[in-house]
Structures are given as C-alpha cells and as structure tokens.
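Students often ask why inverse folding is considered easier than folding. One informal answer: many sequences map to the same fold, so there is more than one right answer. In these notes we will look at a single instance of the problem. The structure comes first.
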C-alpha cells in the first residue's frame, strides 16, 4: 500500500487563517462554542487555539506554542459593509429580521442588505459573516476590464483629445456635457489615468511616449525647490500696490507674464495670460533681451483696446529693464512680484506648465517661428477649463473684444 508523505511545519497548515479568525472573534466577545460553530471547527481545537498548544520536537522535548495575536482588521471605505456589520446582519437575520428592518438598524439601504444576503451565502445555504466578508474582499480585488478597452468609439475620442493635449479631467467633463443622459458614453478622470498608467492593459504601449502633457507614464510624487529670484532695479511698482488681491478676477484687462527659456538662457518665449478669461498670448522673441521683449509687448498690447490692457504683473527678471518705456508706449501699468513668489501670478505659472509639453525644457526655443507660436496659442485657448465652467478662454476673450467695440 502506498503512502503519501505530508510535509510538517508551518508551511502545510491550511488552518492558519481560520485560527486567526477564531482569535479575532474571541477578542470581539464571541463565546468559545459560538466561534467554533461559526468556523466549523471542533471545540477542543478552539480550546487549544485559545489557550495555546504544545508541540513535540523530534528529539522528544516538548515546546509550548502560545496563541497567535489577533490580526489588525484593515479599515475599509464606509461605502462597503464592514466585518462588524456583517456579523450584525447574520445575528439579525438569524432572529428573523428582514432586509428592511436590518437596513434601518444599521443605517443601510434595504437593497444593500438584500444584495448582501443573496450574493454572499455560504455553500451550506446559511449566511456566515466571515465567509461573506472574505468573498466580498476577493470580489473587490479582482481586475475589472477597462471601459476604454471595451469601447473602441470611446477610446478613439479619448485618444484624439489626448493628442490635442487635453487633460484627462477636461476629457471627462466634455463627455459629461456631451452625454448628460447616457453614462455609457462617459468616462471618469481616474479611468483615463488608469488606462495610461497600466501598460499591460492600457491605451498605449511602451516604449511609446505617454499621451499626457506631463509625459508621465506612472504615478509619482516630486518636490521642486524654488530658488529666490534677483531683486529688480528701482523704480518699480510692487504687486502689493496693484489695488486687488491675486484671487480677485472680477475685472478684465489684467495680465500676468513671464518667459520660458531654453538652455543656458540663450533663447526664450514670452507668455501672457489674461487673468479673468485665462486667455494665453505667446510672444516671439528673436533674442533673449529687454529690447526684444519691449518690442513684442508693444506690438501685442497695441492690438488690444485700452480696457483690455490695464495692468501687467511680472517677476523681477532683467528682461523687464525697460518696463517704464513699456508703460509709456502701451498704457499698461507694470507690477512686480516678490522674489521667489510665483503664486502671485498663478495663472501664468499654470500656463507655463502647460506650454512645456510643446516646448520641453533644455531645448532650443529659437527654432520656433511666430507661426508655430500662433498654432500652440490657438490650441491652448480652445481647451475647455473647469475654472471657466467648461467654457474656453477663446470664447470668453472674443466676447470681451466684441463688448469693447
């Protein structure tokens, strides 16, 4: 007769998880008999688990094994039923309460209780709370198919907007506005990010570049050290004397500006953002100096009516050395931020971050023509913004121009 050799030791113990469940129930106040009946173990086994047991070694000596410490129950979102709630459901259902009564006592919807009792039954036909909790946890862990993979039309729409440098949030909001009554034609922001960040099942494959504006293909955090800028020569107007707070955007015609520069500060592009509409204008600079910036600002502001060129807020860079001449030629009063305080012109900082997808760092910016800048400017201004109620900067700025004619 053949015999099968069973390996001894901790690696062959299929009861370990059940043992831990038993100790948790003891800590929650269950009786020994009740816990053993619930877990389908013999009472003597439960007595050994509760008080510890002895193990006989090969050399004949006996070792005492103390009881395992109870597991720390992981806290889950309150939208899911907890293990304690499932214990209460089992107790109340055993007393004959229906889903409506149980839901009222637990503060849950009756349909939630009914679905729980229907989906997570034990094979014996009874509702066992720990078995139900394990099944529910396994169901949450399983990989769900991505909505964008299953819907080619939706995937094509999302990929098309990503190619136009829309953010996942902008795409999600646009779909919600376009299909308010059809959830099947909408997709959540997080779904788009997951589709991008999961190369094995996502909507792009490495080594292809990430479709995000940031170029990221995985989640990561980063810290950025802000260096204090140089003090600008006097005389100049401080942002604190501008007459309104950085959060006040009630009046149109106030702009924020800066430069994005190439390697070694040898090339630059000027950026302007109208604070109320977030409309972006790009300045083509043949050279990185104050003379070219003066000419570009005079040319750009000269195309606007006077009410739409009230003020300009800049940092303390030497490219604004001719700020008094710019004010004299355009009528726009120029204010300067404090050193190392980019939040004082937050709209412009945000726009510069968006522009870096078109003009990456450490690249020569002098190769871009005025026509290239106009194309990028147009594409950026045609994106819907959540801060504008999903309207575009272009539409709002055109309305301002029409009102001033």
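Output (designed amino acids):
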């Amino acid at each position: 007769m053949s015999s099968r050799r069973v390996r001894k030791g901790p690696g062959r113990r299929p009861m370990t998880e059940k043992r831990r469940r038993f100790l948790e129930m003891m800590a929650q106040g269950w009786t020994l008999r009740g816990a053993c009946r619930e877990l389908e173990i013999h009472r003597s086994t439960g007595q050994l688990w509760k008080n510890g047991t002895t193990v006989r070694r090969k050399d004949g000596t006996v070792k005492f094994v103390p009881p395992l410490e109870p597991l720390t129950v992981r806290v889950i979102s309150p939208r899911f039923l907890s293990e304690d709630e499932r214990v209460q459901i089992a107790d109340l259902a055993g007393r004959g309460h229906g889903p409506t009564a149980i839901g009222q006592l637990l503060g849950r919807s009756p349909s939630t209780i009914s679905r729980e009792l229907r989906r997570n039954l034990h094979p014996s036909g009874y509702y066992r709370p720990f078995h139900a909790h394990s099944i529910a946890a396994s169901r949450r862990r399983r990989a769900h198919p991505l909505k964008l993979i299953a819907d080619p039309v939706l995937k094509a729409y999302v990929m098309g907007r990503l190619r136009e440098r829309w953010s996942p949030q902008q795409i999600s909001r646009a779909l919600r506005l376009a299909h308010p009554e059809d959830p099947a034609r909408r997709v959540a922001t997080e779904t788009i990010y997951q589709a991008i960040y999961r190369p094995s099942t996502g909507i792009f494959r490495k080594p292809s570049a990430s479709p995000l504006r940031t170029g990221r293909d995985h989640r990561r955090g980063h810290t950025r050290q802000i260096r204090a800028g140089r003090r600008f020569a006097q005389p100049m107007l401080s942002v604190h004397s501008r007459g309104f707070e950085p959060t006040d955007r009630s009046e149109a015609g106030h702009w924020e500006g800066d430069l994005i520069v190439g390697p070694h500060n040898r090339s630059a592009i000027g950026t302007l953002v109208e604070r109320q509409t977030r409309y972006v204008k790009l300045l083509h600079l043949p050279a990185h100096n104050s003379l070219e910036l003066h000419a570009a600002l005079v040319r750009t502001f000269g195309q606007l009516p006077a009410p739409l060129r009230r003020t300009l807020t800049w940092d303390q860079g030497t490219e604004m050395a001719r700020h008094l001449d710019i004010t004299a030629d355009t009528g726009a009063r120029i204010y300067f931020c404090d050193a190392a305080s980019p939040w004082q012109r937050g709209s412009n900082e945000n726009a510069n971050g968006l522009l870096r997808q078109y003009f990456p760092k450490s690249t020569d910016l002098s190769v871009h023509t005025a026509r290239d800048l106009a194309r990028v400017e147009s594409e950026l201004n045609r994106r819907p913004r959540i801060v504008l109620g999903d309207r575009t900067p272009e539409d709002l700025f055109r309305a301002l121009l029409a009102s001033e004619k």
